[in-house]
Design a protein that fits this description.
Immunoglobulin-like; Rossmann fold; 3 domains; ten-stranded mixed beta sheet; 29% helix
Length: 558
Amino acid sequence: MKVRACLKGEINYTAIFLFLTLAVFIFVLQNIESLEVWYKVNFTTGLLKPATDHHRHHGFCTFEPLSPEDAEEERLLLESTAWPKTPVLLSPLSLEETSDPAHSTFTILPGKEGRQWQIGDQLEVTIKMRDFKGRPKNTGGDVLLTRLHNPSLVAGVAGKVVDHLNGTYTAVFSLLWEGSAQVQVTLVHPSEAVTVLQRLNVEEPDRIYFKSVFRSGSLSQTTACNVCLRPTQQPQCNYTDVRTGEPWFCYKPQNLSCKARITHSMGEFKQNLKAKEEKLFDSRVNMKVPIRASGPADITVLPKKEGQPNVESSIVKSGPAGYYYQGVWHALGGSAGHQFNNEAITRCLRGKVVYMFGDSTVRQFFEYLNAELPNLKEFDLHNERKAGPFISLDYTNNILMKYRFHGPPIRIVPIPTSELRYMANELDGITGGSNTVVIFCIWAHFGTFPMEIYIRRVQNIRRAVVQLLDRAPDTLVIIRTGNPKELTLTVALTNSDWHSYQVDKVLRAMFKGLNVHFVNAWEMTLAHHLPHDLHPKPPIIKNMINVIMSYMCPQQGG
């Protein structure tokens, strides 16, 4: 009897143990994401890093194999730009649980000596995000822009934001002028909106489609084109560039040859949002909306102490690229800090050949110089004003200036396919030398595609730049970055500030260590008091021209 009782007890304990084991296993499965976050918070050191996935699905976009070196660089770039994991959206979307700028706040932290700050100090601000019910967010991934400014001094500097992945963020500002300084924090996109943008770039890269006209005699037909084309029964024309390998495809017209393609233009935009997702992109509610301060929003900056090292040189490595004071951009580090009037610009350009490549944001430089310099005359090549190419000459001062759009994708008016030139190929045709300046930018037309497409384009451009500098080391190469812009629903879905910021990081990383110079359009637009614009207003462009001229003529100015 005792033996039976013991066996019965053991069987009971075994059953209980198996039940508890099964319960724990089910709990772990149901809460694995929460446990991962808990582990990262409690068992990692330093700043938390977002999770990455290098094998994510890319819809119908296919990528040609890269060399081992390029493939490894691509992997590292994707890892370095991976956005913090954003919430998985329920269907239908519950807006109440998303980040709400009206309920969120920022707080200025005390300085080293209480609430006293001096030039050269750093100001830290804590940002706490809440949802529409006022509940604290416990995940990161919100897109925030921060600025410190003084309207009366026309002064401003961009802040740097650190995401702690728990609904809290820290913004850091360098204090660079004496007097009042006011903090401005803006929610560009809630993290939930980034979830949508990430999905669209993978699953719907053709939400902006392009088109080409094919013509032979009186027979004409138009078909859709893109970097990535959905597979259908209709055959495709492959226009992949022979030299660079840049992909481009069009659906083949039924009764015409692929060689009959004569124009390229932008087609239509398809929104492709799920139910209620458009509520995440409302400029009156949660897109480019300011966040209020929980206390004072401004501080008073005192003069620097006697004997304190030069402030500007001490913050070059980790601080901002520059700041505005009295409406003038003061670059930190390098020589890009002189002011140039029209006479000084002409003097700096004398004897130079200036090549400009890219989108309409670099075309602004061409247009600005044409408008400001009286001797610089543009030839009428009878091209579309938004497309080019353009040429201007100043015979008296021996100045030649050229502009050409980068290759597709290009969202512009119809242009002849004969004018579709990839930037890398054009750079290969430049002799270079001390009288040659190359200025380019490439960012605004890639906002609907997976980041791999942008990385591969820039890899080709960089190879061409390296070869140009190898054969002509004294060639001056200047790169303009992207900039924040005014956002509507359509703009956000096709060229969001979130994507532009990712592109900015990729571009800088890929040209790091090369003998090139940057016009930091991102910070120059963010720090300025004028509203964000895809095409920054003339006062900002004037400051960018000063930066360019300072690189070209570091000993001049006037």
